[in-house]
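Re: weekly structure request thread

Next one in the queue (256 aa):
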Amino acid sequence: MNQSEKRLFLIQSLLKERPEYRDLSIPTEPESQRQLLRGLMNVRRPRRIGADFLKIQDKYLQGETSAKGIIDVADLMPAQPGLYLWQGDITTLKCDAIVNAANSGMTGCYIPNHRCIDNAIHTFAGVELRLACEELMEQQGFPEPVGQAKITPAFNLPCRYVLHTVGPVINGRVTKEDEELLASSYRSCLELAAENKLESVAFCCISTGVFHFPNEQAAEIAVRTVKEFLKKQTSVKKVIFNVFKDLDKVIYEKLL
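Done, posted below.
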């Protein structure tokens, strides 16, 4: 199967799971098919699926990520000892763990083709990530508290693990508690990475964007918290601040 054939198989398999989609027509244009497949993955509830689907999904997603271009942390230059700044798509970064800005449900973003990092990570990891998160939450028995973190395999992403953390949502002015909770999100991820003997961790800009934490203030907390942690003797030796927007790149360049 080539990529087009794999994509069509995956779309048809997901459509068959939902009787209400029985008469939905599949577009012929490749990019429209990609959007449809992503949307179907986004709205799918966490549950098991057949081995044939997973085998083809895994080859397809790894092919899509490879086509985008995988960036190895070993090829990046540090801005300071142990600290890196990289602008790009975090789902293409090869390192020990990337950080996902999750919600308290922890099973990903269910809005079709939403442009948040939670949606992107779950899309390119594949459907097994949502199921792994669901199983963790069932064991826990309550929503994930703000400022804490969970670890899962990364499945089809080039990194080894995903660290999922829930950052504070800002409504109005930033409080001292908001600042402490954001610092806790960074610290919890680093502690979890150290517990699992990981060396390299890539952080997204937790709580900024739709969570409304001011970008500059969030970055200051991020850098301060990471620097404090790196003073400890743990397995974590490389921390990458991953930015997507030019605005955040400028902010981190000043701080680093």
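The mean pLDDT is 96. Strands lie at 71-72, 83-87, 93-94, 97-101, 149-153, 161-165, 200-203, 238-243.
Next request, please.
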